[in-house]
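Exercise 7. Given the encoded structure of a 68-residue chain, write a plausible sequence.
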């Protein structure tokens, strides 16, 4: 199985916000990030890039992160 890491880029820094991501969904409120063993998380961000080889997704911050 190929799970991804999700990083949030803000103010020139990158912070890992989730590992073992199994599902990523774009919603009007932001990106919904789901992992195997945690509740889905809504991240106020927009897709910046996906590096399939490195297994990481980078989001550009657009507001505060929350659970949802």
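Solution.
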């Amino acid at each position: 199985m190929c799970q991804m890491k999700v990083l949030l880029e803000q103010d020139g820094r990158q912070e890992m916000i989730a590992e073992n991501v199994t599902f990523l969904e774009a919603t009007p409120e932001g990106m919904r990030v789901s992992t195997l063993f945690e509740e889905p998380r809504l991240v106020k961000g927009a897709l910046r890039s996906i590096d399939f080889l490195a297994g990481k997704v980078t989001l550009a911050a657009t507001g505060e992160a929350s659970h949802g």
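Remark. The chain is about 0% helix and 70% strand. Students should compare their own answers with the one above.
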